[in-house]
Amino acid sequence: MTPPSPKWLALPLVLVVAAAAWLLYRSVPVEVRALPAGDTLLYMDLQPLRQAGWLAVGGNIQPAPAYAAFIKESGFEFERDLDRLAISLRGSPVQSDSTTAELAGNFPAKFQAYLGQHAQRRLALDGAVGYQFPGWSRPDRPITVIPLGPRRLLVTNSVHPQAVLRQAQTFHPFAPPLWRRPFWSLPPLGYFAMDTLHLAAQQKLDGRRPPFRNAQRLQASLVAHPDLSLSLSGTLATASPADAAQSAAWLQAQIQHFQPLLPEAPDGTPTLRALLDRLQVTQSGPQVRFTLRLDRTTLQRWQQSLVPSR
Question: How many CA atoms within 13 Å lie on the side-chain side of 278?
């Protein structure tokens, strides 16, 4: 009997490596990969929330006059047309030195015409056109909006929009440092991560007192489960178990302090107190862990309260 060829023996290994590479790539949203490095990362997938009815589209809800005028003139409605959003911030999360957002959704030609009509300045970039508007969190820096086709939009207040555009157009096989999710799982509905160690070194956060005493990294994920429940889970990584214990005790004390001050809602409507009642904070070695689970029944009751009938 003729032994199998070495190339056939290598085929299963090639298939396993290819499958692992595919899972590794799929586990990180393309919008996250396109962002420049920063100290804070935020990601949100709005499509499942829209399908579940959490995002009110049309119906009896009347938008503010300025927003209604924007929808009419641009043809773009956030609740209807925005699918995914990823944001990278460098420096203070409150007033960052640089902020870049990658948006996925429906950006029709009418929307791009709106940008050209209202922009203060038009930039000719390599491979794209940038439209500049007055700065918001940083008034000294204009916001540059760069359409990358009918389904993709880049927004940044960087002083080097061309470099941000180049980053977004480059293929990135690996996840950014702040994205720490199991490679075998699909992206969550929401994700938040912050490099607290670097921000404390820059004196953007107080690293001498809890909850950020000797903290290294904060991250949280919002996940949907097959039973239609939602869970928010996260960790605060610190330098030692003693630091974690102090941060956990501080967080638990804050919850106990604020709970009696918040109004109750006996009819089950969503309140901050109801969320705090479900929030659990524990310590595991040098990490502080927090979890919040919302079952299907509670979510449906809250949804009826938050979203008016159509």
Answer: 16
DSSP β-bridge partners for residue 131: 122, 145
- d(CA 70, CA 77) in angstroms, rounded, equals 8
What's the pLDDT score for residue 124? 93
Residue the block writes with tokens 């949100």: 44
Q: How many CA atoms lie within 13 A of 130 on its CB side?
A: 22
Q: Residues 230, 290: contact at Cβ < 8 Å?
A: no
Q: Are 176 and 37 in contact (CB under 8 A)?
A: yes
Per-residue confidence band for 141, with pLDDT thresholds at 50, 70 and 90: confident
What values do phi and psi take at 214, rounded to 5? 55, 30
What are 96's two structure tokens?
A: 């960052």
Tell me the torsion sign for CA atoms 14, 18, 19, 21: positive
Amino acid at 82: L
212 vs 205: CA distance, rounded Å? 7
The two structure tokens encoding residue 85: 């959003």
Among residues 159, 181, 172, the alpha carbon closest in space to that of 34 is found at: 172
Residue with the two structure tokens 């929030």 = 279
Burial class of 256 by CB neighbour count within 10 A (0 to 12, 13 to 18, 19+): exposed
Strands (E), 37-120: 40-45, 82-90, 98-105
Which amino acid makes up residue 221? S
* Predicted model pTM: 0.87
